[in-house]
């Protein structure tokens, strides 16, 4: 598995966990769209986590590639 893919998958898992923890920390009392359903919160968290981890990997990998490492 490529390093980028592995880093992105780890980001999905961390983001999904973060979404679940957000769901537990901020329960919905009314007509909330994001925290009304645990699956929606986990999926949104996973996408955000995957995107951020991939972005961080691209930034650091391109810097190390420019330095010749």
Overview of the structural elements:
The protein is an all-alpha fold and 69 residues long. It has one domain (13-63). It contains two helices and no strands. It has helices at 3-25, 38-66. Helix 1 (3-25) runs antiparallel to helix 2 (38-66). The longest helix is centred in the last third of the chain and has 29 residues, at 38-66. The mean pLDDT is 85.
Quick synopsis:
With 69 residues, the chain is mainly alpha-helical. The chain has one domain. 75% of the residues lie in helices and 0% in strands.
As a whole number of angstroms, the C-alpha radius of gyration is 15 Å
What percentage of residues falls in helices of 4 or more residues?
over 70%
**What is the helix/strand order?**
HH
Please give the alpha-carbon distance between the first and last residues: 20 Å
Total domain units: 1
Coarse shape = elongated
Structural class: mainly alpha
Count of separate DSSP helical elements: 2
Task: Write down how many β-strands occur, each being a DSSP E stretch of 2 or more residues.
Answer: 0
Specify the biggest β-sheet.
Answer: none
Average of pLDDT: 85
